[in-house]
Amino acid sequence: MGYVAVCGGENAIRSSETLLQFYRRRGETDSIQVQQIVEQMRLAVDRVMAEGSLYDPTLAALAIKQAEGDLVEAAFLVRAYRSTLPRLQTTPLLRTSGMRLIRRISAAFKDVPGGQILGPTRDYTQRLLDFSLLDERGPAPQPPRAALPGDAPEETERVSEYLRREGLLPEPSRDAPVPVDITRAPVSFPMPRSARLQHLARGDEGGMLALAYSSMRGFGNVHPTVAELRVGYLPVRITVPGLPEPVVIGEILATEVELMARGGRGDGDGSDAPQFGLGYGFALGHNDRRAICMAILDRSMMTEQPSAPAEDQEFVLSHIEGIEAQGFTNHWKLPHYVDFQSELDQFRARRAAASASHEEPVAPSIAEVPA
Amino acid sequence: MRYTFAFLDEQSKRSVRRALLKAVAIPGYQVPFVSRELPISYGWGTGGIQVTCALLGPNDIVKVIDQGADDSVNALNIKRFFARTADVFTTTLTREATIIQTRHRIPEECLTASQILVLQVPYPEPLRLVEPRETETNRMHAEGDYGRMYVALYEDIVRHGEITLPWQYPTLVNGRYLMSPSPIPRFDNPKLHMAECLFLFGAGREKRVYAIPPHTAVESLAFDDYPFRAESFHGRRCERCGSTDTYLDEVIADVSGRRSHQCSDTAFCLQRQANPAHPRGWGHDLTSVPRKEET
Fold first, then answer.
1. A333 interfaces chain B, CB cutoff of 8 Å
2. Which of A36, A275, B81, B248 has its CA 20 to 30 A from that of A128?
3. CA separation (Å) from A186 to A75, A181, B12, B33, B45?
């Protein structure tokens, strides 16, 4: 099959699609069931839900299957599907203190009211390949009984509240404006915090990790303390006309991180008693790394005079958007005959002029100079 | 499971149309819009597709070209998308289409007052050449502060003897807004000036739309002593239709490296093959330089 870009393209596209189906299912094994992906590729599903910006484990698993495990492509499939859905409701603010917790840790205090819950984590495992999984049989192992969350949500106050009472953290603004939804309202820079947080919540994890790491490593100055990381089932409420109280319509699994870093109000200029600044991270599903990166970038972008890349909201938010970035990166495979012909016209004219004057063209052209 | 007509939900299409109305009202001004994800990747024409989706009605006839060609794989894929989600008629005949979506070319055949050309735009910001920050380019546009752009062009002339921007050559629209014409070749820039048709530009990834309404002055940046220059094909002709006045693609014809040339606009080339006198019909001399009128 030749890639004929000028004619016969339709056949080429169809053949390519058929080939994809062949590669997706080659071999002798049974087709992977979507439910298996939901249950056994838990963290892949969670990442696709976060970057796909849609809480639906089944559709995320379907996307992973369809994309042959390419998680960026899977998130893209989910995002595209999301574009077809109308927005029906906006929930009132969700209170994460009411999560059914499966994991909760604080790096700031040895013990906190409500306790530390290690929960399911690979943090303290030894990363040895488990060869027994090569041919895993038999039933799933039973969890320790006491380690599963209760059925009913319990109020567990966030660690940040204790620090707030002491004045170490600023009070959250109670007259916060209605959050911007970047998928419904056009936004431009500088963006309000709600838009920044939404960008971060759906950003590409690899990109966020790189930028957050740059900030803690030296290009920037966020040295955070994790006040709290919690993972659990968060009840989602909506208001229904005619009912006095919001009603719970279901739960989502989510990860929340609050971290503190120096450089809050009054820290540095001595105008006030110094406070820590708070960075906030939230991820659909269970993803510690993602939520920590988000919190670091949230904090670093509050820097008033940005000097490092991770402090500059235009730099961060424009480039962590994985679905956009992968698309544009891939688009260089498209034909560029017309543009290249135009380049050739310029280039040949410059070469002709240079050889006529026996001078080497040395200076870069304006088209080659990055702004 | 059924999708909405033209894929996007109705709220999203309406928001694109609102942005387009504003764009038409302020020629050359980049209007932010809510760019939604499509089942086609960002960078592959999503701005144009969203504009077209917002415009499509059941009676529209759509043509899609990529680099001038109707049967290029990406054009075909986008056309398939419109046919699949909006059930519209598609065509390759330029004059038959009500909406033409294009990447990197303006058709050779003149468009009429009843046609809309939707251009796909990768980089909507012409000032990106001299300034990476949107907060700063917004200010420059608001104040009409385009001095740095002219200085950059001047420096280019000092270094190279001419302005070396190849495609996506910046224009001044209606004497007010600096505008990127999208990566069309310089050859196509003059077609934007005082045209009969409506030009709509969509940048999906960068979330901007802008427009050139009919009969709008569009000037390619230049200096009096260094005029705008379109690409030259040095009298070469299309090996298929024999045209010498169209934009040509260069093809490496055989292993000896010999080059041949073909019209980039495949539909126009077919017309010319049938009738060598088939006119282009753009109402002005394509080699002339549209200049802002002195006031």
1. no
2. A36
3. 22, 9, 11, 5, 19
Q: Which residues of B are catalytic?
A: 28, 238, 241, 263, 269
Instruction: Identify whether A131 is part of a domain.
Output: no
Q: B132-169: per-residue pLDDT in tens?
A: 999 999 999 999 999 999 999 999 999 888 898 999 99
Number of compact structural domains in chain A = 2
Q: Would you call A185 an interface residue with chain B, using a CB distance cutoff of 8 Å?
A: yes
**Is B64 touching A (CB cutoff 8 A)?**
no
Could you say which of A79, A186, A342 has the minimum Cβ distance to residue B34?
A186
Task: Determine the Cα–Cα distance for residues B180 and B176; give it in Å rounded to an integer.
Answer: 13
Residues in chain B: 295
- pTM for this model (two decimals): 0.87
Are A27 and A106 in the same domain?
Answer: no
Residue length, chain A?
Answer: 371
| Alpha-helical runs (H) found in chain A | 9-24, 34-40, 42-52, 57-66, 71-82, 159-165, 193-201, 205-217, 288-300, 313-319, 322-330, 337-356
Looking at the structure, tell me whether residues A105 and A25 fall in a common domain: no
- One-letter identity of residue A82: R
Domain that holds residue A72: 9-82
**Read out DSSP for B152-210?**
HHHHHHHHHSS----BS--EEETTTEEE---S-BGGGGGGGTT-SSEEEEEETTTTEEE
Domain containing B264 equals 232-278
- Which class for B220: exposed (0-12), middle (13-18), buried (19 or more C-beta within 10 A)? buried
How many structural domains are present in chain B? 2
